[in-house]
Amino acid sequence: MDEDALIIARDKFSDKNINASFNSEIDKWDTKTFLDKAKVTIKGKITRTAILLLGKPESVHYLLPSVSEITWKLDTDQKAYEHFGLPFFLNTTKVLQRIRNYQYKFFPDNQLLSVSVNKYEPRVILEALHNAIAHQDYSKNARIIVTEKTGKLIFQNAGGFFSGNPEEYFLGDKTPDRYRNPWLVKAMANLGMIDTMGYGIHTMTLEQKNRYFPLPDYSKSNSEKVILEIFGREIDLNYSKMLMKKSDLDLQTVILLDRVQKNLSLTKDAVSLLRKQKLIEGRKPNYFVSAFIAKVTGQKASYTKNKAFDKPWYLEMILKAIKEHGFLERKDVDELLMEKLSELLNEKQKKKKISNLLSELVKQGKIMNIGTSRNSKWEKTPSGKITKK
After folding, report:
1. What CATH architecture is 295-389?
2. pTM over 0.90, yes/no
């Protein structure tokens, strides 16, 4: 056992049992008694759980062929990675410290001051990471991977979601009835790493809502692995502004709006509920979060975002944005469309595609450039007048 991990684990166990009758005795227990009481060992015998959570790095061979490793990978314009082994109890904090976190600013309508939030909430990162450890299928002999993208974190662990589906836990009403690794889960709960009532996903959901970001996303998971995406920026600024504007929205409604911004399916009842509250616009299947009228420098394009994939939709999106804001500069059009174009295209190809869309609207006589070729400024063509520039 790692001595540092044992000291901190004892403190965490004491905090967890602050009101227990035996709390005053915890510091007097020998290590064997403490580990048994914490359900880390069994009758003084070392378990896989004990090694995984509190073992020395060189103890990893006892767990072979299972892979006891967490990999952090930076996948942005910069590339980096680092592997973290035992003890997991300490090293999840080291993974957290490798993740770049900073203040993210929103600019609410009709306010001069911005709203700043952390890009990532440390509690959310640790919850996601500890869940991956607790529910990993170690028989798959795979490492846990944390991938840091520019605007999101991706947590991947082996084995499908074990009890129910993730969305059932968003509201905090569901309690798991079984665990893949029950002894590991019990020990992690006793050491304050997770809870066993299913509130972890609910907690992450609330934290994301309170920071106006998209909710946790498990949609890429399958029977072989759980993939959780935690967003550190907005997908649709209308959604974020909606949460800032309507702070009294209940969580169920926020969950439905999150599905809208992610272009996920909605039931007829859900659509009816959101329309009744005037929270969404569009036609099936291309619903989008209703926009608040706003003209903030450098932010125009974000207010008209929704998803579609055919050329007419892109053309209509440009026209609608110009109508709402009076004009768009080229950077606004790029911001509006870049993330909506196929990921099969590189940045140069995406910009070429956008140029072609603008040219198409010019040929149709619907927009004109009142700026220059280098600093374009697109506005709607006066009715009946066709201008090419």
Report:
1. Orthogonal Bundle (1.10)
2. no
